[in-house]
Amino acid sequence: MNSFPFAFFDEGSKREIRRATLKAIAIPGYQVPFASREMPIARGWGTGGLQLTLSLIGKDDVLKVIDQGSDESVNAVNIKKFICKTTNVELTEDTAKASMIQSRHRIPEMPLREDQVLILQVPIPEPLRYIEPSEMETKKLHSENEYSGAWLMLFEQIVKFGQITSGADHPVCVHHRYVMAPSPIPRFDNAKLDHSKALILFGAGREKKVYAIPPYTSVVSLAFDDLPFQVENFEGMVCRICGSSDVYMDELMDQDGKVTYQCNDTSHCYEKSQRGER
Amino acid sequence: MGYVAVKGGSKAIEASIERLKYERLKKGRIINSEDIEAGMRLLIDQIMSESSLYDEHLASIAIKQAEGSPEEAVFILRAYRSTLTRNYYSCITSTENMIVERRISASFKDIPGGQILGATHDYTHRLLDFDLAHEDPGHSQTWLESYMAKNLKEVERHPLIPMPKVKKYLYEEGLMTQYPENNTAPDDVTKESLLFPSSRSQRLQLLSRGQTGALLALGYAAIRGYGAYHPTVSELRIGQLPIFVENPLDTENMEDAYYIGDIKVTEVETLFPSSDSSHQENQTLSFETGFGLCYGQNESKAIAMSILDHCLETANPAYPTHNEEFVLMHIDPVEASGFISHLKLPHYVTFQSELDAVRKTKKEE
Lengths: 278, 365
Prior knowledge:
By secondary structure, chain A is α/β, with parallel strands linked by helices. Helix content of chain A is 28%, strand content 18%. In chain B, helix 9 (212-224) crosses helix 10 (299-313).
């Protein structure tokens, strides 16, 4: 792999992606189109996040990659291997040690700091896509601040099921202006976006969009006054390894059908059990 | 617990990659990339076309690496392509300068220059040829020599010359509007992200590098009923197209441009009768054209492309095949296969969230 430049891209490509990123930071929640490159990792497997990481990473960075909460998930391992091959940067599983964190669909349980950047991989960047399939139309809706469709989608859930039934990727309003898809993070993580100390970047490689939540930006999950936003319910569940109870859980079944729970954030779980806080 | 064990993911991946290598080698034979290049001409053509990278040698290595999967081979070449510096754009070339190897018209029996069947599977019976299982290299060599001896003389007597386009005849009779050539530089879809409404140059690039099967399916839908068309192939031609780059010291003079080689392409022009809107009172019919062009010999793809090109030129909300977002956003081989295959990734977090939503509604019942 030595024939490839540092961080895979030529400097021109990196600059181009960083320019799009700067624009995204300047307009919180707005989807900036960028010329997404074809990567040696499959479209839909984190190429947007990967391109952001590669465009920003420097020799002194310490990188953490997680996939659905896990540092050791196949895709996280694969992305790490690729970035490491082309940059030789230090890798970590320890959230506190990382200067850059690329993640698929989770925000670490440990609160992030100002000197950290969180990069989320995005499959469908358009929060209005399931209401309006056409890109040309959704672009208009955003520019006209026309979000009735998003509200109606939630309202219809209430009419049909008596409550909001969105799963992950529950839409948020950023900086009182743009409705944004937070990427399929669970509703549990939406609160971590609001006034985050760390810069949060979103990269959608296949859909060729970059967007951002700058530090200390207001992020509100869409909901109604009389039916407030609800996160996933883990009441009474305790991690079988570290004993945590205020975190996002994986539900596990053994062969006898017995159900147990375990922290989804593996690095949080490992660290907590190491400290013997049980 | 699935494939997100808390530890050990790296080791499992290494083992999986080793197993993949084993599957490729386990029968104890090695296929040379030269053999692929020699015997898999049409697969190479398809892969070069979908990869937007004209290089038979690299395509044959990719096919070997991908164990023959076009989906995988195109993926590898596209990724490689994005690491290459683009130093030049080639000069505008005209397919009238093509050195034609095959050329047919479904519109006219007799065309100036004649119909040339060239090499095609079209007129073969698709009977499985069991003899190919044990082809004798000696026999093949003798056959090859006698074929060359017989045909070389013919070639010398009839040198390959550029041929006029069939549609010229329609221009001359006024049955088709002849538009001036649009020689503005195309919008490069690999350098700037596609915004809608798209330009024609963007549409043609995306169709030309689109997945063969996807184009076939959509083109078929358009002529079967979701578009209500039956086009006629004015001309299908296959041949070598010379490519030049400008001389940086003299960009005006084409005489000074550098010849960098030939590429083989399939070009298709189809005809669609349509009402001529220029005469408001007496409506008349005239022909409109659809254009298809792709690397190598890939005739069905080029024909399907010409149908879709015409569909997208005549937007019609009744049919998805006339909707540029519907067509252009879903025909890219790497994007489609990437997003479909990402469903194999763990979705434990997102599914847990869905479980929560579904359970909540059950509790309410």
